[in-house]
Design brief:
With 707 residues, the chain is α/β, with parallel strands linked by helices. Helix content is 36%, strand content 16%. The chain is built from 24 helices and 24 strands. The strands form 4 sheets. Strands 3-2-1-4-5-6-7 form a 7-stranded parallel beta sheet, with helices on both faces.
Length: 707
């Protein structure tokens, strides 16, 4: 991950980036820029007529007024910006609030993009339709919304799992240094039209001022097609004021009224009024409820209810002052906090993959489900893929065959595809003539086919592997044991992720299994490539489960011991930020979405289905330890035979686990040390090359130790 990121921030060309006329998007960009750690490498592009720019890193793009009459200003703006950017090395381009600009720039420039929505996506050119919004997801590394309301609008009729590519970062402010003495003043701030509720304010403010002559009212804002006017000696129209002047007036105001009919994307004025210690009256439209937890909110919006709300605040000074104090003390969105979040999002776009290749030795056929049907969303947890990588890097030649995909692709009304698959295997074997057949998690290979292999090559070695649990009192494990047993008489060796003694201790299986060996789920530097302990994750603890990797989604009404355990655990984790998937209607996540979630947590729970069993763990242990998260695991798994308490955290029961999660969430130094040690030890003992060579050595009859 790069320490220095060169960023180009693109404003809408009509956005005025000046002190005198700045609006919401310009204020957002300038304020977050001021505290960003990438400040020295961030340039802001726009097209502004004024010269009192908000920041000195601003680059003004002049648009030829004559040319623009005969061509699209958007096209001209994008062409000029792309010419500037192409001459400089930018790692990231941020486009604000214009989907059409994103579309054009992404076609002109080969860069990573973040898009920021400041308004309702369903009302904007370039994001109204489902296909347009999916295109934005495809063109960007991340999409940022100014409120959850805006985010929800974007995902209207879209798959909610796509939300992992998005974040909400609210418009934010600096908290005032002190709460000033208030004047008996009521303010309306916004455009003076019906959509902003100015007609409602007009209908009731004359009555208010007649009833309370020692109070004054002010309107800040303008409207080109003005039809609404307030005539009262105690009311003043101030017109459009720059942002600084608005804030100074809000600091001394008692009451601020924002009765918007319009679905506000956020409602910056409501946030600013709250931070200035105003008793703020708002509607419940759009993102306004997200601006503060202490507004006086009108749900049934009309002039009568607005009148009652203002009278209530005037007649109850203690209540009014309580709202003012609560708003001032509990500012919901602060620039210093949310700037770090934006910088974190920027960093997350800069992750890259690494690839490595080695020469060949043995010839090996590796048969497993490569996941074509699932569009390879399981690449990061595919043991078959890690085996192939390890074998190749150790110098072996590997031919991969995906049994399920082949059969599915050759299935028709007259045939299941299985017989054609047997023929394909046999002919492939004749052509390739491997030294070793290595397969896992399949019942699609006929015993007769294996016998044909051995008739063709008397020296052939056949080994099977299985990563699923082998334990008592678990129906899923019983099916798994049956699958293993299916080939036990034809294979030379069997490799399990459970200690073999679990099978051998069971009287039902004594003498039925031979040459059983344990292997630990391997890590691969091209797959587990994060060092989360060097990052600054937002969440405390991560856990992801599913109701079947091929299914990919939750099964309605399905509950197992993991759900029960997590439900009890979360009730004990007060003030802990947990990020759990496959739990409480939070759908499972896969592939890159899995990693995007994983790297945003400091710690992870390694909880497998069934009762804790010696050495067994699902393959998630490689994902979490290998990527540098502090990992919690049940002591009864006996993983302490491989990892000490300085490399992984063991818990004895749910109370012990919750206590340790709370402890390490507050002790970053020790958490980082243990996570780093665990990752280092994991890669030393159980990397893909060492695991692959161990399997080859055992298969060939060589005496070898697992560690």
């Amino acid at each position: 991950m790069k320490k220095k990121i060169n960023i180009a921030t693109i404003l809408p060309y009509k956005e005025n980036y000046t002190f005198s006329e700045a609006s919401a998007a310009s204020l957002w960009v300038s304020e977050f820029y001021a505290k960003s750690k990438f400040k020295l490498n961030n340039y802001i592009f726009g097209s502004t007529s004024g010269i009192d720019y908000l920041t000195d890193n601003y680059i003004n793009v002049e648009l030829d007024s004559i040319k623009s009459k005969f061509s699209s200003k958007t096209n001209l703006y994008c062409k000029k910006i792309s010419n500037i950017i192409s001459k400089k090395k930018f790692d990231l381009i941020e486009v604000h609030n214009r989907p059409l600009i994103l579309k054009k720039l992404s076609n002109l420039l080969n860069n990573k993009f973040i898009f920021y929505f400041h308004n309702d996506p369903l009302s904007m050119n370039g994001s109204r339709t489902i296909s347009e919004r999916i295109d934005i997801l495809n063109k960007t590394s991340k999409i940022v919304f100014v409120s959850k309301w805006v985010q929800n609008r974007f995902f209207f009729n879209l798959d909610p799992k796509l939300r992992k590519q998005t974040d909400v970062v609210y418009p934010s402010i600096n908290k005032s240094s002190s709460l000033l003495k208030k004047n008996k003043e009521i303010y309306f701030v916004g455009r003076l039209n019906r959509s902003k509720g100015y007609d409602l304010f007009k209908d009731c403010i004359n009555k208010i001022l007649n009833r309370y002559p020692n109070w004054k009212a002010f309107s800040i804002g303008d409207e080109k097609r003005r039809t609404l006017y307030i005539n009262h000696k105690n009311h003043s129209e101030l017109g459009f004021l720059n942002h600084k002047d608005v804030i100074q007036r809000l600091k001394k105001a008692e009451i601020v009224v924002i009765p918007s009919r319009w679905e506000e994307p956020f409602g910056r004025t409501a946030l600013e009024a709250a931070a200035c210690g105003c008793a703020t009256i708002t509607s419940d439209r759009g993102g306004l409820p997200e601006t503060s937890d202490h507004h006086f909110m009108i749900k049934n919006l009309d002039s009568n209810n607005l009148h009652k709300a203002i009278v209530n605040l005037i007649n109850n000074p203690n209540f009014r002052k309580k709202i003012q104090r609560d708003n001032y003390k509990n500012v919901k969105h602060l620039i210093n906090i949310n700037t770090k979040l934006i910088d974190k999002i920027r960093e997350e776009t800069q992750v890259e993959f690494k690839i490595n290749y080695l020469k060949n030795k043995l010839k090996i056929i590796n048969i497993y489900n490569t996941g074509q049907k699932n569009n390879h969303r399981l690449f990061n947890i595919s043991l078959g893929r890690k085996f192939t990588n390890g074998l190749i890097r150790n110098g072996h030649d590997v031919l991969e065959i995906s049994d399920r995909d082949y059969i599915r692709q050759n299935r028709n009304l007259l045939s299941s595809g299985n017989s054609k698959f047997q023929q394909y295997l046999t002919e492939t074997f004749k052509n390739y003539n491997p030294n070793l057949i290595f397969f896992g998690h399949t019942t699609n290979i006929n015993i007769e086919t294996f016998e044909n292999f051995k008739n063709l090559n008397k020296n052939l070695i056949i080994s099977q592997w299985n990563e699923d649990p082998v334990m008592k009192n678990l129906d899923y494990a019983k099916k798994n044991i049956t699958n293993i047993k299916n080939y036990i008489d034809i294979v030379d060796h069997t490799f399990l992720t459970t200690h073999p003694e679990i099978l051998k201790k069971n009287s039902n299986y004594i003498n039925k299994f031979k040459n059983i060996h344990f292997f630990f789920v391997p890590v691969d530097p091209n797959i587990e490539y994060f060092n989360v302990y060097n990052l600054n994750p937002r969440n405390d603890i991560f856990y992801a489960m599913s109701h079947g990797v091929n299914r990919g989604t939750l099964k309605s009404g399905k509950i197992d011991e993991r759900i029960i355990f997590l439900d009890k655990l979360t009730k004990k984790l007060q003030n802990i930020k947990y990020d759990f998937y496959g739990f409480k209607n939070q759908e499972p996540i896969w592939g890159i979405d899995f990693y995007k979630a994983l790297i945003n947590s400091k710690m992870a729970l390694n909880l497998s289905r069934g009762q804790p069993t010696k050495y067994y763990s699902s393959n998630r242990i490689a994902s979490i330890m290998g990527n540098g998260l502090l990992t919690f695991i049940d002591k009864k798994t006996h993983i302490q035979d491989f990892f000490s308490k300085d490399e992984i955290v063991y818990y004895e029961n749910i109370d012990d686990l919750s206590d340790k999660i709370k402890f390490f969430s507050k002790n970053d130094k020790l958490r980082i040390k243990i996570a780093r040690n665990g990752q280092k030890k994991y890669f030393k003992l159980f990397n893909e090359m060492k695991t692959a060579q161990y399997i080859v050595n055992v298969s060939l009859g060589k005496k070898t130790n697992f560690i």
